[in-house]
Amino acid sequence: MNRIAVFALILGIILAAAAYYTDFYDLPGAMALSVPGFVGYIFIISALGWFSLNTLHQWGREARVYYS
C-alpha cells in the first residue's frame, strides 16, 4: 500500500504542478487541466492522509513497558 501511496503522491504533485503552471502563464489548455489539477490535489491529500494514519498505527503497535 505504501507504493500506491507514493505513486499517488508523485502523480498528484505532477498533475497539480502542471495545472498551476499552465494557469499561471496563461498557456493554452489551462482550462482543460483544471480538473486533473483538482484530482492531483485529491491524490496528494489522500497519500498524506494514508502516511499519517499508517504512522499513527505503527506508533500504537509499539510495545509498551510498564514499571510498577
Helices, strands, pairings?
Elements: H1 2-24, H2 34-61
Helix pairs in contact: 1-2
Keywords: Membrane, Transmembrane, Transmembrane helix
Transmembrane segments: 29-51
Largest sheet: none
Which stretches are low in confidence, meaning pLDDT under 50 for 5 or more residues running? Answer: none
Q: What is the molecular shape?
A: rod-shaped
Question: How many DSSP-defined strands?
Answer: 0
> What is the first-to-last residue Cα distance?
39 Å
Total number of distinct structural domains: 1
SSE pattern: HH
Helix content: over 70%
Q: Helix count, per DSSP?
A: 2
Quote the beta fraction: under 5%
Oligomerization status of the protein chains = single chain
Q: What structural class results from the helix and strand content?
A: mainly alpha
Rg over C-alpha atoms, rounded to the nearest angstrom: 18 Å
Keywords: Membrane, Transmembrane, Transmembrane helix
Transmembrane segments: 29-51
Structural summary, described in words:
- The protein has 68 residues and is mainly α.
- It has one domain (1-66).
- It is built from two helices and no strands.
- It has helices spanning 2-24, 34-61.
- Helix 1 packs antiparallel against helix 2.
- The longest helix is centred in the last third of the chain and has 28 residues, at 34-61.
- It is rod-shaped and about 70 Å long.
- The protein starts with a helix and ends in a 7-residue tail after the last helix.
- Keywords: Membrane, Transmembrane, Transmembrane helix.
- The chain crosses the membrane at residues 29-51.
